[in-house]
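R.M. (postdoc): so does anyone remember the format we settled on? I'll just put the structure tokens first.
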């Protein structure tokens, strides 16, 4: 799950940066940037959850 979260973090960042570079209209840029940030948030959630699970397994 941690690997999937890290992959989502990277892919969300790529989506946001690509939208800023490639899309000409502000509305399209904003939509893709928000989608990229949501993907990054999901990745951060998965990484945090996997980290907390690994800490709980040690105790």
């Amino acid at each position: 799950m941690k690997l999937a979260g890290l992959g989502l973090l990277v892919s969300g960042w790529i989506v946001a940066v690509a939208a800023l570079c490639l899309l000409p209209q502000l509305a399209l840029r904003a939509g893709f940037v928000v989608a990229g940030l949501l993907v990054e948030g999901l990745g951060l959630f998965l990484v945090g959850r996997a980290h907390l699970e690994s800490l709980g397994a040690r105790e």
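R.M.: ...and that's the designed sequence above, right after the tokens. Also worth knowing: The chain has two helices and no strands. The radius of gyration is 15 Å.
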